[in-house]
Design goal:
The protein is mostly helical. It has a domain of 141 residues: Tetratricopeptide repeat domain (Serine Threonine Protein Phosphatase 5, Tetratricopeptide repeat, Alpha Horseshoe), CATH 1.25.40. The chain contains 11 helices and no strands.
Length: 224
C-alpha cells in the first residue's frame, strides 16, 4: 500500500523518525555485540555505549543516566545557539537508546535493516520481540510508533506514543509525533497542546515553533 505523508506532517515525522530511528546506526555501532553478522558489523572505531562528545561550551554529563538526562534537558533549554543545542539533543537521544542487552542491540540492528528495506512488517515483528524482552525500552516504543504511523495505523501509533510518554514525558519526538497525528485527524486543539509541550521541552524546534504560531491563530482565534 502506498504510504501517505501529508505535507503538514513532514517536519514532525522527521522529528519522530530522528528520535526513533536516526540513532539506530549509532546504537548499532556503539553497542553491537561481536559476531552479529557481516551486514550488521559496526565501524572499527566504535566504543561501547559511546556518547557524542560535548562542545567546549558544555560540561560533561553525569554518569547516572537519570541525573544525566535531567542535566541535559536543563542544558538544552539553556543552549546559547543551535550548534550547542544539536549536540545536547544528540546526547539525549544516545542516552534514550542505551541498552545493556546484546539481544536488544542485535534486534534493533535488524529493525534498522528491515526499515531501510521498507520491510515494515518484519521490522514490527522484531520490535514486538524487543518490547516483549524489555518493555521499558523507550526507543523500542518510539520506533514502533513511527512504523505504525508509516503504515497509516494511527491508533496503534498513538498507543505506542502514550507508552513512550509514560516512561519519558519529556520525549520531544513523541510529543511532536502526537501533535502531527492529532493535526492530521483534525484535532487542532490537541495538536497545539502537544506541539507546545514539545517546544517547552526543546525550544530549539524551529518548525514546531512555526506550527504553534499557526495553530494558535487558528484554534484560539475561533473563540474570539
Amino acid at each position: 500500500m502506498p504510504q501517505r505523508f501529508p505535507a503538514i506532517g513532514w517536519f514532525c515525522l522527521a522529528i519522530l523518525l530522528a528520535v526513533a530511528g536516526a540513532l539506530m546506526p549509532a546504537v548499532a555501532s556503539a553497542q553491537a555485540p561481536p559476531h552479529s553478522g557481516p551486514q550488521l558489523a559496526p565501524p572499527e572505531t566504535a566504543q561501547p555505549n559511546e556518547l557524542p562528545e560535548p562542545t567546549s561550551k558544555l560540561p560533561g554529563i553525569p554518569k547516572d543516566q537519570v541525573r544525566g538526562l535531567d542535566f541535559l534537558f536543563g542544558a538544552l533549554k539553556a543552549a546559547p545557539d543551535e550548534e550547542s543545542a544539536s549536540h545536547v539533543e544528540a546526547r539525549i537521544l544516545a542516552l534514550w537508546s542505551r541498552t545493556s542487552s546484546d539481544t536488544t542491540v542485535l534486534l534493533m540492528q535488524r529493525v534498522k535493516v528491515a526499515t531501510d528495506a521498507q520491510q515494515f512488517g518484519i521490522a514490527l515483528k522484531l520490535l514486538d520481540a524487543v518490547l516483549n524482552l524489555h518493555p521499558d525500552y523507550i526507543e523500542g516504543w518510539s520506533q514502533r510508533a513511527t512504523l505504525y504511523y508509516m503504515r497509516n495505523d494511527y491508533q496503534r501509533s498513538l498507543e505506542d506514543i502514550e507508552q513512550v510518554l509514560i516512561r519519558e514525558p519529556r520525549h520531544f519526538g513523541a510529543l511532536a509525533g502526537l501533535g502531527m497525528i492529532m493535526q492530521e485527524l483534525g484535532d487542532d486543539r490537541r495538536a497545539l497542546d502537544a506541539f507546545r509541550k514539545a517546544l517547552a521541552v526543546n525550544p530549539h524546534l524551529a518548525n514546531v515553533r512555526e506550527l504553534v504560531k499557526t495553530l494558535t491563530e487558528k484554534v484560539e482565534g475561533r473563540d474570539i
